[in-house]
Each structure stands twice: as C-alpha cells, then as structure tokens.
Specification:
Elements lengths: L10 E2 L2 E9 L3 E7 L5 E7 L7 H16 L8 E5 L6 E5 L6 H8 L4 H20 L2 E2 L8 E4 L2 E4 L6 E2 L20 H5 L5 H17 L9 H10 L12 H7 L10 H16 L27 H14 L64 H35 L1
Antiparallel strand pairs: 1-2, 2-3, 3-4, 4-6, 5-6, 7-10, 8-9
Length: 412
C-alpha cells in the first residue's frame, strides 16, 4: 500500500479513502472504508479519461460484469456510481498478495500448491462463464490470494461471450504473453479465450515466467500466434494440462469444468506424493508440438519478429503460418547437399534439372543408402584391403607359374 497523494480524493461517495492500492490504465484503486468499518477496494476513473465515452463504456462493463457473477471467486461488488464526474465503484477488499507478487517475492510454487490454486481458479472461471462473461485479461496480477482462496479481479475489459475484441486494426487489448491467439487476430472471444490465459498463468506460477518468454509487445504477440509455448520447468504433473490450455485452436482447449476436476486430482495426488500417471488423451492437444521450442532472445528476438512481419507483408508464399513444430512462419523444404565421389564435393546440375542424390547422402529416415557405405572411412579401408589381397594373390600366382616354367626348361 502507498500513502495518498496530494491530488487524490479523501472521500468518495460514502467511503473515506486511506491508502493507494495501485493504479492501472483506467484509473486508481484505493483502500477505503464506510462508517461501519467495512473495507473496500475503490476504483476511480482518471480525470483525463472521465470525459472519454469509450472509457466510460468500459468502466460500465466492468461494473455490469461484477454484478452478474455469483459465488466467492471474485470480489463482491459493494457500491458504484457511473454518473459521477469521475465514475467509481467499490468491491469487497481482498487481503493478500497477487499471484504475481507472491511468485516474485517467494519464488515458484510447488506442483501441489500450483494445482490447488489452479483448481480453485478454474471453479471461479466456471462461475464467470456461467454468467455469460469472458474476463479477457486473466493474468497473475489479476489474481489475489486471500486466506479463503484465490479471487479474480479487474474485469475492466471483460465482455459478453461471443463479442469481438474492441480494438482498432493492429492493436489488442490485454497483456502480451497472456492473450489468446484469437484475441491477437481480432476474432470473437469465448470461454476458451480465458482458458488460454489460465494456462499461461499456471505456467507462470510454476516457472516465474511467461511461457512465451520476454520481449517487446510485437515479439510477444507474434510468439503467441505462431510459436509453441516453452514449458521447461513446469512440473511433469501439470505440463500436459497446461499445454492443452495453450493450444492455438480454441476447440482443442479443455473446458473450465474439466480443468477444475483434473487439477483437483493432481493437487490431491501431489500432496500425497504419488507419482503422476501418463497424461490422458484429452490432456494433450492434437496439434501438440515440442515442450522446449528454440527461439531467439534479446536483440535477435526484435529482429526476428521484424523479419517475420516483413515477410508476411511480402506476398503469398512468404507470409507467416500458424502451423509448424516450432512455430516457424512457413513450412520449408530443406535443400539436400550434393556430393560427388568419396569426398562429397559439390555437384553442379543444369538449371531445371532435378538434383540427383549423391552416393554419400542420407535418406529421409536418417539412414544411409546401400551405396553410401563406400564413401565412409570404413568402406574405403575395406576396399583397399580387397585390392591388396587381389594384388597379392595375382603376384603369387604369376611367380608360381614362372618358377614352374623355369624348372621345365632345366629338364630339357
């Protein structure tokens, strides 16, 4: 918590403000209390945004979403005033750190604890989706770990199920690394959109990092759409389920009810120290790729995304593709190396003539052809030995013939 600043209000509605809890793109969140002593988290829209109708609409959606959700998975709405000069609303104050802060301060969560928190969050998402709401910005900083269980907060960009993203061309609302591919593309959001963010959040709890690494927004959004997640460090008990949540195709992701059931089982098994069984068929997406993809980092990552973006704008046949074992932008056919003779020198072919595989080239299965053994050192040694034996036998026979002829001459 932070002290109130000079420009901060001291009283909003029936609540007296005591501390700052944080600030975001839409407004500032304060810790307040009413006359009965009930503590609330009160969000007030920024002055410069209060006159913006789009921001007012988003704020109204947040209040509407909070009112529609039932159950203990979210902070209960206490009061709101959408017609005020600076619109605000207050929810029940949830004591406890965010999942982001807990991991940052104490390190990654054990498999049992991560699965337990995940099971509770999945049950919470069931209630959210039953209310016809998609959160659209689920991430570690929007999950508070209260003594009574995790709570989902900040429905500022939540929207009704089936609605498209409210963005301009080339932009996306949300947090890179936790956005689903369909959000980046501007397609309709569904409960499966939150499942993708849930998988990325669970991976963060187990690794203290996004499954798509770090980088600029452009790099992160590119990876989300075109590359497979890196789940190195995620416990074996959780990795298949997390990977299923991060499937590019929303239809391949598990439902929140399935997540709650499976994570509950994993939490109980991990708490008893029982080894994880083989992953279920439904826990692994059909388009499963490697759990340890290779990707550039640092400045190379920036250049990588820029090159891919430029190729995508070059025209058909060069643009990015959403498939590929390692998230490559296009399927590429490797050009085989041509060899000539035992040394494997470059063989030149006329334009338009199909290249013939050399005798020392490998087949597509990784094994050598029947003639390829000649170009190996062992093959050359065997051939040299055979040649020496042939010469030795030939010389011996010639010598025997000559000796026999000389003996015949002496007799006569």
């Amino acid at each position: 918590m932070m002290r109130l600043r000079r420009e901060d209000p001291r009283v909003v509605g029936a609540f007296r403000l005591h501390r700052r809890l944080g600030a975001g793109g839409m407004g500032v969140v304060y810790l307040g209390a009413d006359k009965r002593g009930q503590r609330v988290a009160l969000k007030v829209i920024r002055p410069e945004l209060a006159e913006d109708q789009e921001f007012r609409s988003r704020f109204a959606r947040e209040v509407s979403a909070a009112r529609r959700i039932r159950g203990g998975c979210t902070a209960r709405l206490v009061a709101a005033d959408l017609e005020a000069e600076r619109p605000w609303f207050a929810t029940q104050y949830v004591p406890g750190p965010s999942l982001h802060d807990k991991v940052a301060e104490n390190g990654v969560l054990p498999a049992a604890e991560a699965a337990s928190i995940g099971a509770a969050l999945a049950e919470g998402l069931v209630a959210v989706h039953e209310a016809g709401v998609v959160h659209r910005d689920l991430k570690p900083s929007n999950i508070l770990l209260s003594p009574k269980g995790p709570r989902i907060i900040d429905f500022g960009i939540a929207w009704a199920t089936g609605a498209s993203t409210l963005t301009h061309v080339g932009t996306a609302v949300g947090s890179p690394g936790f956005l689903a591919p369909e959000q980046v593309r501007g397609a309709a959001v569904t409960p499966a959109t939150d499942v993708f963010a849930f998988g990325a959040t669970l991976a963060y709890a187990a690794t203290a990092d996004s499954p798509f690494g770090q980088g600029s927004s452009e790099v992160m959004l590119y990876r989300v759409v075109h590359e497979e997640p890196d789940l190195v460090g995620v416990p074996d008990a959780l990795a298949p389920l997390v990977y299923a949540c991060l499937a590019k195709d929303p239809a391949e992701r598990p439902s929140t009810a399935q997540l709650a059931e499976r994570l509950g089982e994993i939490a109980a098994r991990e708490a008893r120290g029982i080894a994880a069984p083989a992953p279920r068929r439904e826990d692994v997406p059909k388009s499963a790729g490697p759990l340890r993809p290779e990707r550039p980092v640092g400045r190379r990552a920036e250049e990588y995304a820029q090159q891919r973006t430029q190729r995508g704008a070059a025209g058909p046949g060069t643009g990015p593709s959403s498939t590929g074992a390692r998230g490559s932008t296009a399927a590429r056919t490797p050009v085989p190396r041509q060899g000539s003779g035992a040394r494997g020198g470059a063989a030149r072919t006329a334009p338009g003539t199909p290249a013939r595989p050399s005798t020392g080239s490998r087949s597509s299965t990784g094994t050598r052809s029947s003639t390829g053994a000649r170009s190996t050192p062992a093959g050359r040694r065997r051939r040299l030995i055979r040649q020496r034996i042939f010469v030795f036998v030939t010389v011996t026979l010639l010598a025997a013939v000559c000796i026999a002829a000389l003996q015949g001459c002496h007799r006569f």
